[in-house]
Specification:
This protein has 803 residues and is mainly alpha-helical. Among the domains are: 60 residues, Zinc/RING finger domain, C3HC4 (zinc finger) (Herpes Virus-1); 78 residues, no CATH class. 63% of the residues lie in helices and 1% in strands.
Length: 803
């Protein structure tokens, strides 16, 4: 016998009588009726089903007990029997209710609890009257107390029982809400056992159908958070998710609950109130959104659903409503996907109007700050602002007068607005509209005031100004160079940013180095200023730190390194005029440094700059090569011009430069093991790198050096074929010019000429250059073709004095 059966046997109830039992259902009758012909008694519903079945089978109706066919199916209510059964039920119900009371009291066993709860469910399902009895006999608090049982099966049964007791009975729902029962039910939502969570959410769904309990459920800490989590969970079953959704839907009747849902990531109810609610409700919702921290997905959801509404409030609402909507727009516009949605909603015209308003129409500074921040976020989206009108005149954000107004506002605004408007200009100058900003800066003479922001104490302002100057530096490099040279303080501020010792390379450093890197590389005045400030040794230290892996900074490392190398390359343009530059280049062995950068760096731009710097260094080799006095006389000095070099080079000396060379002191490409690395760059996909590398190699073929030895060095480095291939590929005009010049020099060496003279592709490329090149290229191509006997030496195409 089960424990539940044992509990049932403990109940001392009055047994049923045979006449109470329906012959068809075998259960106690509730509505007994008697057949008029046979006087047999049945449950009304059962006998009526019997007659319907007879009809369906197309047989005459009969008595289920006697099988006698009936002339009439008339049924007489058995009133006396029904009254007797009802009195019997009442006596037993009273007995069972008393037993239930006792079985749910503290100290009762699990079996007693389960039997009592099952009995309560059964009687409540049978009749609403019994639900009333649960309330009248004060059983509901006892059922609720069992929720705290330490036995899971009892707790689950109690949750089920309460749900049955309160279904379609608002009074019972209210009775359950007395005390802390609802709080206890909510706690089940966080339990690890799925069955308890399922029963709890089904009960809460039922309770939330009346308004008073909806408010009470929502007010319990964590209730809405748990329900939102269940509704969006992938771990719960379908029914649980559905019940959680229905419960939340019921809770939406109260504004406080809606706000709680929004705090926990369920924004749709709030957005619905924002769109459909009364003006007071709309203001309340906007105010909440302005103070709420959103995830990126929520920002997009708000922008998509309520963008037009927020823009309308900003355009024509009360001051409080405008402030609330601006605070909200300030938040949601910071997400990458939101700005384009807000632009479609028409945000730009009222935004710019508020920023530029003056006099009696001027908006408070606080609102202007919000407007400036939103505009900065909008511009960061990289939308094409050339085609977005601000008014009926067709004025746009990048129109000259708009940018004029922005620049003037920057000079008159406080730090918060200054910073955001600088960011706006940064956004505009990141696009093809950069020239609009450049033109306005030039016409207003605003470049000086913009440069002054480099020294601002506020990091955000400093960063925005440096990024802006970086963007415009390619178009205003001479103006910037002039200002920095004329104001050493600003130059020092820029240098301070560049060489700052941080944990890694910052965006500010990458932008600051970009400004200096864009300034004219051949400007001797600026290079002199940088020398005076001791910049170049610090730059070299930074380059070595990056190459040794001592600096990190993600996406900013390569731009920063490129800027460092570009600035360092300035030294190679003033080696003859600035003695200090020569000293630094020698002390720090720039030949080796640029060679390593050429070979070991992934960035094309760094390699291009390095190749160009190596060309400049190599051009100084003949001047710096030490020519020994082979005759034994010492009257010639250390540095000789090429035309005084000895006709025979002693062993151990550089054959190309005819003297004592080194990579460190005379920048010799041969001593620096650089030739092979330059040759390796000739088949690179980047034409600029090929051009720079070829130019550097051509320094070994200049008339100021031993050209034949230069050609042999290229041959030994397997560089002849790549140079010819550059000529054959004919990719750019500059490469054709340089490769034709180099091939002509190569063909002067008979041994090499004999090796390559039959290369038909090369000959075709030379003929092409001779026929279609510019004046100088035709001359050089003609000389090259003569050397391989493809043109007669008496050709009159060019004057002899032009060759």
């Amino acid at each position: 016998m089960s424990e539940e059966s044992e509990s049932e046997s403990e109940v001392k109830h009055e047994p049923s009588y045979d006449k109470f039992i329906c012959p068809l259902t075998k259960e106690v009758m509730r509505d007994p009726v008697t057949l008029e012909e046979t006087h047999n008694t049945f449950e009304r519903e059962a006998i009526e089903d019997w007659f319907r079945d007879c009809k369906r089978r197309r047989v005459k109706p009969s008595c289920p007990l006697t099988k006698v066919e009936l002339r009439s199916t008339h049924l007489n209510p058995s009133v006396a029997l029904r009254n007797t059964i009802e009195r019997w039920n009442k006596r037993n119900d009273a007995t069972l209710l008393e037993f239930a009371h006792n079985s749910l009291s503290p100290g009762s066993s699990e079996s007693q609890n389960l039997f009592a709860l099952k009995y309560i469910q059964d009687v409540c399902v049978k009749s609403r009257v019994h639900k009333h009895a649960m309330r009248e006999t004060n059983l509901i608090p006892q059922i609720s107390s069992v929720l705290k049982s330490n036995i899971m099966s009892v707790r689950c049964k109690a949750l089920q029982t309460i749900r049955v007791v309160v279904e379609d009975d608002d009074d019972n729902k209210e009775a359950v809400a007395v005390g802390d029962t609802i709080r206890t039910i909510v706690k089940f939502l966080s339990r690890g056992l799925m069955q308890e969570r399922q029963e709890a959410v089904m009960l809460l769904c039922e309770l939330s159908k009346i308004e008073s309990l909806s408010e009470k459920i929502g007010a319990i800490d964590g209730a809405i958070l748990l329900l939102v989590g269940m509704a969006s969970s992938k771990a719960e079953d379908t029914q649980t998710i559905e019940k959680a959704e229905l419960t939340l839907s019921n809770l939406e009747r109260f504004e406080a609950n809606v706000l709680q849902m929004a705090k926990n990531g369920r924004l749709k109810p709030l957005l619905r109130l924002l769109l459909e609610g009364s003006p007071e409700t709309q203001f309340s919702m906007i105010s909440f959104l302005g103070d709420h921290a959103f995830s990126n997905n929520e920002k997009v959801e708000v922008a998509t659903t309520a963008g037009y509404m927020l823009v309308n409030f900003m355009r024509s609402g009360t001051r409080e409503a405008r402030e609330a909507s601006l605070k909200t727009l300030n938040q949601i516009s910071s997400c990458e996907k939101s700005p384009n949605i807000l632009i479609e909603a028409g945000i730009l015209p009222p935004l710019v109007r508020d920023l530029f308003s003056v006099g009696t129409n001027q908006v408070p500074t606080k609102l202007k700050e919000f407007s400036a921040t939103i505009l900065a976020n909008i511009v960061a989206s990289n939308a094409n602002f050339k085609y977005i009108s601000l008014d009926h005149t067709g004025r746009t954000l990048v129109s000259e007068d708009t940018i004029h107004n922005l620049l003037q506002l920057i000079s008159n605004a406080g730090p918060a607005i200054e910073c955001k408007l600088l960011q706006v200009l940064v956004g505009i100058t990141n696009q093809e509209t950069v020239m609009n900003v450049v033109a306005s800066i030039k016409s207003l003479g605003a470049i000086t005031s913009l440069v002054q922001f480099i020294g601002d104490t506020q990091w955000e302002i400093r960063l925005a100004s440096v990024k802006l100057l970086k963007n415009i530096s390619p178009y205003m490099n001479r103006e910037l160079a002039s200002i920095l040279c004329g104001s050493i303080g600003e130059l020092r501020n820029l240098i301070k940013i560049i060489i700052a010792e941080n944990n890694g390379i910052s965006e500010e450093q990458a932008a600051a180095i970009g400004i200096l890197a864009e300034l004219p590389v051949r400007d001797p005045r600026l290079t002199s200023c940088l020398l005076n400030e001791g910049v170049f040794p610090m730059i070299i230290y930074k380059v070595h730190s990056i190459r040794q892996g001592q600096c990190w900074g993600g996406r900013f490392v390569m731009p920063y390194l490129e800027g460092l190398v570009r600035i360092l390359s300035r030294l190679t343009y003033v080696l003859e005029s600035e003695h200090d530059s020569l000293t630094i280049a020698c002390e720090h062995n720039l030949t080796a440094l640029f060679t390593d950068l050429l070979h070991q760096t992934n960035g094309d731009d760094v390699q291009i700059i390095s190749a160009m710097a190596l060309e400049n260094l190599s051009m100084q080799s003949i001047r710096l090569t030490r020519i020994p006095d082979v005759s034994g006389h010492s009257g010639c000095g250390l540095f000789q011009c090429f035309f005084n070099k000895p006709t025979t080079v002693p062993p151990g000396l550089c054959k190309v430069h005819n003297g004592i060379c080194s990579a460190k002191d005379s920048f010799c490409l041969l001593e620096g093991k650089t030739v092979g690395k330059l040759v390796g760059c000739l088949d690179h996909a980047n034409e600029k790198l090929v051009e720079a590398s070829l130019s550097a190699l051509c320094t070994l073929l200049h008339d100021s050096v031993d050209v034949e030895q230069g050609v042999l060095e290229l041959w030994n480095a397997h560089g002849i074929s790549p140079i010819i291939k550059v000529l054959i590929d004919n990719t750019t005009e500059i490469l054709v010019q340089k490769s034709v010049w180099a091939v002509e020099k190569i063909l002067r060496t008979d041994d090499i000429s004999n090796e390559i003279a039959d290369d038909q592709d090369m000959l075709t490329a030379l003929v092409e250059a001779f026929q279609h090149g510019d004046h100088k290229t035709k001359q050089v191509a003609e000389r090259a073709l003569k050397r391989v006997d493809k043109l007669p030496n008496f050709s009159g195409i060019f004057q002899k004095n032009q060759s």
